[in-house]
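The methods section describes the discrete structure representation at length, but only in general terms. What matters is that the chain and its backbone geometry are given together, residue for residue. For illustration, here is how one protein appears when written out as sequence plus structure tokens:
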Amino acid sequence: MNSEDYKRQAAAAALEFVEPGMRLGLGTGSTAKHFVELLADRVRAGLDVVGVATSEATRTDAERLGLPLTTLDETPELDLTIDGADEIAPDLTLIKGGGGALLHEKIVAAASSRMIVIADESKWVALLGRFPLPVEVVSFGLAATRRAIESAAAGAGAPGPISLRRTRDGHAFVTEAGHLILDAALTRIIEPPLLADRLAEIPGVVEHGLFIGLAKTAIIAGPDGVRIVERP
């Protein structure tokens, strides 16, 4: 089996937590895409749920598959969000934002009573930081904001180079909210809460990809099967 097979296994296991009448947050990314597809199968079989998409890509997939959608303006409180992650630590602190939807993903997760993160085994790490940490920023004062992020990371014991995310054609990547993303290659984030606090103090930072205290459950699939991890 390959990683896509494991992602789909994790997504299938997450379906067991979905109950009729639920208001669901629908994540973004390759693993969340599997969940949306499998959820649509259940909806076509009669399951009554409604979802809030965290990105245009997810919204497009959901509409194509016939999933009923709402918005956080119409439905500000959600029962459950299912989403993937770029890295998952044992305490279920996450790095998210590889797909560029971290702001919307965090807003939806925070509006949910429960967040379940689904992933293949490769995303489970002893310490966060191997995957570059996305930081969503405004374009004004970009150089100053980048310097402030570098200083904050170093002060939190996680120094590393920071680069502007670009598209394949070399242009700056722009999020759906109209912001830029700086990717911080920090290697080892020893104290995620400290780094999160320092980043939040920087005026040019809109949001960062550290998800702390949001995921209550992780469903991890790999060669040894599917395991469910609850936050300590």
